Amino acid sequence: MNSATARLCTIMAVCVIVIAAACTSAVARVPEGYRDIKLGMNKAQVLGLLQQGPLHFSYDDMGDEVGEIIRGDDLFRYASYRFNSEGILVEIGLEMREILGRDRVLELYNNQHGLKLTPLQAMVEADFSIEVRDNCLVMKKAAARDTLSAKGPTS
Predict the structure, then answer these.
(1) Residue 16: how many other CB atoms lie within 10 Å
(2) How crowded is residue 74: how many other Cβ atoms within 10 Å of its Cβ?
(3) Are residues 56 and 49 in contact, defined by beta-carbon separation less than 8 angstroms?
(4) Is 6 inside any structural domain?
(5) How many domains in the chain?
(6) What is the 3-state secondary structure (H, E, C) of the chain?
(7) Per the domain annotation, does 3 fall within a domain?
């Protein structure tokens, strides 16, 4: 009986580990950027990647926004990178390819990233969110919030 009980406990432990691993990998994370450009980067970093990377075809610096014509991506044709007043990337807008249609692009994007994004359902995670606006996929970094103590400022 002892060997049978030990064998049963070992099998159950292995099953629990396998189920826990499957559940952990099934949890989708909101993408923090597009290709090699991530939310939270500063403008100089983004421009550096756009200038040097073979992934990036053509871009235009328009002050607090940088636009990029996307090549080599079946889902998106244009990206806009928006910066806050400190020059930090806080929003990425990806314009979908019309030939596929919004529903098909979302289906493929969801499959690639393990998401359940719809035109009516945004995904939010800690500091990042992703939503659909018309024919665009919009990734945002939450603004840093000032937090004050309930006691008020100290002198």
Answers:
(1) 10
(2) 10
(3) yes
(4) no
(5) 1
(6) CHHHHHHHHHHHHHHHHHHHHHHHHHCCCCCCEECCEECCCEHHHHHHHHHHCCCCCEEEECCCEEEEECCCCCCEEEEEEEECCCCEEEEEEEEECCCCCHHHHHHHHHHHHCCCCECCECEEECCEEEEEECCEEEEEECCCCCCCCCCCCCC
(7) no
Domain assignment present for 122: yes
Give this prediction's pTM: 0.74
Task: Tell me what pLDDT residue 149 has.
Answer: 47
Residue 155 lies in a domain: no
* Residues of the domain holding 43: 31-141
Closest listed residue to residue 116, CA positions, set 136, 124, 98: 124
Q: Tokens for 66?
A: 């940088």
At 77, the amino acid letter reads R
Both tokens of 97, joined, read 């390819």
Tens of pLDDT, residues 79-108: 999 999 999 999 999 999 999 999 999 999
